[in-house]
Amino acid sequence: MATYNAWRVHEKDGEYVGNIETLDTADLPDGDVLIHVTHSSLNYKDALSASGNKGVTREFPHTPGIDAAGEVIESSTDQYTVGQQVLVTGYDLGMNTPGGFGEYIRVPAGWVVAVPKGWDAHKAMVYGTAGLTAGLCVNKLLKAGANPEQGPVVVTGASGSVGSVAVEILSGLGFEVTAVSGKPDQAEYLSQLGAKDIVGRDSLAPEKKPLLKPQFANAVDTVGGGPLAELLKQIKPGGSVACCGLAAGMQLETTMAPFILRGVNLLGIDSVEIPLPEKHEIWSKLAQDWKCTVTENSAKSIGKEDLNDALQAFLKGASAGKIVLDHS
Ligand code: NDP
User: Fold this and answer.
1) Interval between CA 244 and ligand 1 midpoint (Å)
2) Which atom belonging to ligand 1 lies closest to the Cα atom of 272?
3) Is the CB of 89 inside a 6 Å radius of any atom of ligand 1?
4) How confident is the model over 1-55, as pLDDT tens digits?
5) What percent of the chain has pLDDT over 70?
6) Does the C-beta of 183 come closer than 6 Å to ligand 1?
7) Residue 109, domain CATH
8) CA of 150 to the centre of ligand 1 (A)
9) What pLDDT sits at residue 319?
10) Is residue 41 located within the same domain as residue 157?
């Protein structure tokens, strides 16, 4: 048993307020592996959990944090040994299981991944769920046959956690990347990540026509909703859109035109429940061929006391780049 600090959210009169509290590891759920969490990573879903979105977190008080990395303290399986550096992303972590915004978590062994060789816990959380998701999007595009010769690839929500990593991976693979961003002040950062063109969100403003001039061979979409519907109209014949997010809305209102007249593929991405071997494949690519040096060098570190403001920025669509929570 040990006491530890966690940023825990309470519900009071319909308001959701997060504070740093001292908790006891004895109160963590049952599980195979007890981890001392040194780092977590901030995601849009954490902001939803912390603001009381019941689709993410049903009961409060609750410790959010869908990502965690640190050291194994206890393990009831020989898959993981005490002292080993590990990471956890997805499954139920931070949703209805206390997550990485606390300094300890206890989870099933099936959720745990060894920190890739050459990385530490901080580096793992620079990527976190967002990096994994960006990698899954790129992997699915490549498996669908995407290649740089086909023409530009577009990334929406480009300055966000997922979008920014997707821009850097794709440009590193030789794709000509167009970044769609609502943040003119992030243009220089997007260029550093390798974006060749940067366009505003108005490039995906609603149009009545079912198809528009095809401009992009392929796409990574992190925003969903209306912008995704418009994006589908601008994809070249046979092209693919890997879609993972809903920052602009859950509802997708489209016509059949892009699918049956241009053979466009809409590829769904889930980074949460997929089997561990699929996650392993992407983690090892991120640690080797898909290494994102600009993202690594520009990630911001914050402490628990900064979480409230940082999560609010996600809800406003104002967050940019990767943010690591450092518990030390
Ligand atoms: P961020 O908030 O970091 O990034 C989202 C970006 O989308 C913003 O930075 C902004 O970029 C853009 N954006 C925000 N609001 C709007 C809007 N109303 N209209 C158009 N663009 C908007 O979030 P994440 O990168 O962490 O996550 C992105 C999405 O992916 C979220 O919906 C998240 O839930 C989802 N997700 C899904 C996963 C999965 O497994 N399927 C895993 C991880 C995330 P800009 O200003 O540059 O336009």
Assistant:
1) 9
2) 40
3) no
4) 789 999 999 999 999 999 999 999 999 999 999 999 999 999 999 999 999 999 9
5) 100
6) yes
7) 3.90.180.10
8) 26
9) 87
10) no
- Residue 18 forms part of a structural domain: yes
Q: Is 201 in the pocket of ligand 1 (CB under 6 A)?
A: yes
Atom of ligand 1 nearest to the CA of 246: 32
Nearest CA to ligand 1 atom 14: 317
Ligand 1 atom 12 nearest Cα: 157
Question: What range defines the domain where residue 228 resides?
Answer: 129-268
In the 3-class helix/strand/coil scheme, how is the chain assigned residue by residue?
A: CCEEEEEEEEEECCEEEEEEEEEEHHHCCCCCEEEEEEEEECCHHHHHHHCCCCCCCCCCCECCCCEEEEEEEEECCCCCCCCCEEEEECCCECCCECCCCECEEEECHHHEEECCCCCCHHHHHHHHHHHHHHHHHHHHHHHCCCCHHHCCEEEECCCCHHHHHHHHHHHHCCCCEEEECCCHHHHHHHHHHCEEEEECHHHHCCCCCCCCCCCEEEEEECCEHHHHHHHHCCEEEEEEEEECCCCCECCCCCCCHHHHHCCCEEEECCCCCCCHHHHHHHHHHHHCCCCCHHHHHHCEEECHHHHHHHHHHHHCCCCCCCEEEECC
